[in-house]
């Protein structure tokens, strides 16, 4: 029998590892202790325990007999942390000595740590988690955003308002790192005019470590202390702030690992934001191994992996040459190169003094392996960067692709997990990359699968009701009219979810083009449909906000009342509820602007179906029977025409496919064909579109070859002059 203090300490230790976020049994311990408090602290386990306090803990833990569950969870965590367990225990080779350093400007691990704004961050979080599950040694390197990403409230006019809360570090599962002398550990990066400082924060994500740089310390001048105050500064702030953030991330990040005694064997740059890291790696190689710059770059490039995420030319990070020279001055001097050489590394044409400095170009020129995030995005990227390889045709450009996947345990509903345990075997989670495992779904009784899904939809309905009541309360709306609206939410109604950032290319308005049609469709007395929207617009994006306002107004328009809902403050938590409960996940980006998209993958695992334009992952995943396609993937030269056609096609799919299929019931009330599609979606998609598959792909195709510095050897006749060297790096492994 453990003392109460011991139990509390054990649970606190669990709380300090985000592993607990993807263990349903642990989440249930917290929610069973005090569900109201659990919700109030946004599922933050550390804040929960500290606010609950010893007395309440002691009282509840004994009254509800939670002791043995805590002890069991604690043992499971110890087992989980064993270094040799999993795929990596056998295959990780040299990475066990020198891990992968995974650089990213955002990490979406959990709703309690809002240092992500969308897909890029959630992907990075899922990457860390699967690396941990698999035992691929990997350290995340990122920035700490004191106020995180904004929280969204919609005011009575339907206008998005942004609110910010300051992070309380001692209430988060985050630790500030200190050196052996007990002093706070810091790193410095000099610019030509001043010095940036940052302290280091550590977040434990299963076996993966995430290290975050925090410039909010007194060593910095006030402006720099606020450098990473909000996450949206990364996308909406000034160029000067941006380059300073990126300097901190790439150069400061590598120095921070050094300060922690971590010697990475591979650098993985998740998007161009972190592309200064290879330059710092070259500087370290020069300093420590007495190399010249060209030799250092030859040493570093084969150890670097670059993932690009942006299919739009204008979306790539670019800086004015003067700004680069100012900020990289001291580093450039240590590298022993002149300004023109430095700038040339970020230019497609190094001779063109008018060309701005592009972080993606820098990354492509200093890393030996590069990839896009879906098949279609790989080919878009090859076309986009073809000018970097004059003389090669687009298909010969050495940018491959590794399609994104999602961390299954983080997105899977506990009820679905139990169903998988029953039918796919106890160890199904360790074998999710095998198609045979998912074949087991075909043997599941239709009724059992449908009942589970229906239950989850009921939970989603409860969640949306709770949220809408709370939201309306915050706007002081009369409770009875809100109650009337939310009571119409119906778990038996065909439910379509649409949740994502309100970026214009995602076209949230596509379904709203023809309101008369929409009214008929949603309110059909026999076969109704309900729509649930969620998503944030960037604070500077007026048009995105107007779109939210339009959806807000439609949600209280008498024509749509009770059929169309807007859930505020889309984040990982809202996302988790939606993907676990909807029948259909709608995604209609303008092809080819969705690099991959991952939210639909979360839906598949939970027994939902995708209805999407043939873009991103769906372009390679859709086989005619595992969901629904909008259009045929053709791109019309005229954007407006393409939008109009796809709006029509979308209406047609809903009217002629979704609705009839969903409401076609047999004598036992089951939509047999719909269920067959769910099963086929699971069998054909789940083994591939998960983050374990993605991380193993990275490990096999990139990390392991890179960790040996392995690449096609530099032919003897190539002198180590920079031009031929960059040309050699550019040959790239694929
Ligand atoms: C999964 C997820 C995303 C990414 O979804 P996309 O379909 O790529 O837009 C964005 N935000 C949150 C909160 C998510 O959970």
Walkthrough of the structure:
This protein is α/β, with parallel strands linked by helices. It folds into three domains: 4-80, no CATH class; 93-151 and 158-404 and 700-733, Rossmann fold (3-Layer(aba) Sandwich), CATH 3.40.50; 450-689, Glycogen Phosphorylase B (Rossmann fold), CATH 3.40.50.2000. The strands form four sheets. Strands 1, 2, 5, 6, 7, 8, 9, 10, 13 and 14 form a ten-stranded mixed sheet that branches. Strands 17-16-15-18-19-20 form a six-stranded parallel sheet, sandwiched between helices. Helix 22 (515-522) links the parallel strand 15 and strand 16. Helix 11 packs across helix 12 and helix 20 runs antiparallel to helix 24. The longest helix has 29 residues, at 446-474. It is globular. The structure holds pyridoxal-5'-phosphate. Pyridoxal-5'-phosphate binds at residues 118-119, 122, 500, 570-572, 575, 597-599, 602.
Classify the secondary structure makeup into a structural class.
Answer: alpha/beta
CATH architecture of the largest domain: 3-Layer(aba) Sandwich
Return the average pLDDT rounded to an integer.
94
Bound small molecules, by name, code or SMILES, are: pyridoxal-5'-phosphate
Estimate nothing, just give the exact number of structural domains: 3
Q: List low-pLDDT spans.
A: 712-720
Largest sheet, strands/sense/barrel: 10 strands, mixed
In the CATH scheme, what's the topology name of the largest domain?
A: Rossmann fold
How many helices in DSSP terms? 30
- The helicity comes to 40-55%
